[in-house]
Design a protein that fits this description.
It holds the Pfam family Methyltransf_19. By secondary structure, this protein is of the alpha/beta class. It has helices at 18-25, 33-45, 50-69, 88-93, 108-117, 134-138, 141-146, 170-180, 198-209, 220-225, and strands at 74-78, 100-105, 124-128, 154-158, 186-192, 231-232, 238-239, 259-265. Strands 1, 2, 3, 4, 5, 6, 7 and 8 form an eight-stranded mixed sheet that branches. The chain binds S-adenosylmethionine (SAM). S-adenosylmethionine binds next to helix 1, helix 3 and strand 2.
């Protein structure tokens, strides 16, 4: 069980970590040899898996554009990773000058790499905190400075909860975050599942078992439960490639349907 007195996560550059693995899959430059080697081995075993990672980032873009169109102007992104290659503030600033993004990650080097990338963007900031400790996120001075909890917030929990073990009660955590959000807020979730491709999911879990961020797949029915009493917006929770695909997006399924999620709104 996560204890708020636990020391913060330490830097570990000997093992691949989730943020830099993801960056390497996206073709970014914030990763090391251990992550590039990991990506090569995974892609060799599951050819075409890179597309699944890119699908997650494309889902974030579509979800953030959708929230902006619905009037949401502030975003809290938990387990943000390195905010490059079309991340939340980059999507937001294409549409409006009036937005705020607070990125949160617990991996020290991810935060150290990300802070300079945001130095010229006063509307976005990253802090080092653990999403398993909602108090430390919601009470962070940066949250008070950047976000107005009297106005709707877009809360992103994208590809992060599968790094939170059952012992840390991920659904209870999401319940706490949902309760802290003002009415009109939106929850964006993506999570891995093996419901459709158990073999590929098992292979990926085995690969991640060697990393600093072991992951666990969960059933889609469990992921559905994360939205609680929020209203799921069309098309509901689904495999990500089928979530509001771009009009010119011909393929709405990927080779490895491992990512599932959706967007829901708090009423009021
Ligand atoms: C795969 S990346 C996802 C990045 C981004 N959310 C996205 O979907 O594009 C997962 C991120 O979650 C972070 N993470 C894992 N466990 C975390 C925790 N307990 N608290 C905060 N961040 C965490 C990792 O460091 C990593 O940067």
């Amino acid at each position: 069980m996560f204890d708020t007195q636990d020391p913060p996560r330490e830097m570990d550059i000997d093992r691949p970590c989730a943020a830099r693995i993801y960056d390497a899959f996206l073709g970014g430059s914030h990763n090391f040899g251990v992550e590039r080697g990991f990506v090569e081995r995974v892609e060799e075993t599951l050819p075409g898996i890179t597309e699944t990672y890119r699908e997650n980032r494309a889902f974030i873009r579509r979800a953030v554009e959708y929230l902006l169109a619905r009037g949401v102007r502030q975003f809290l992104d938990l387990g943000s990773g390195i905010p490059t290659i079309g991340h939340v503030h980059e999507v937001a600033r294409r549409r409006t000058r009036h937005f705020r993004v607070l990125y949160v990650d617990n991996e020290p080097l991810t935060v150290a790499h990300s802070a300079p990338l945001l130095a010229d963007e006063p509307r976005a900031e990253i802090i080092r905190a653990d999403c398993r400790d909602p108090e430390s996120v919601l009470r962070a001075p940066e949250a008070a400075e950047l976000l107005d909890f009297g106005q709707p917030v877009g809360l992103l929990l994208s590809a992060v909860l599968h790094f939170v073990p059952d012992a840390d009660d991920p659904s209870g955590l999401v319940r706490t975050y949902r309760a802290a959000l003002p009415p009109g807020s939106h929850l964006v979730v993506s999570h891995v599942t093996g419901d459709r491709d158990t073999r590929a999911m098992g292979v990926l879990e085995d690969f991640y078992a060697e990393t600093a961020d072991p992951l666990r797949a969960r059933p889609t029915s469990w992921i559905d439960g994360l939205f609680g009493d929020f209203e799921l917006l069309p098309p509901g929770a689904t495999y990500l490639s089928a979530w509001r695909p771009d009009p010119d997006q011909i393929v709405t399924s990927t080779r490895y349907p491992l990512l599932y999620g959706g967007v829901a709104r708090k009423s009021g």
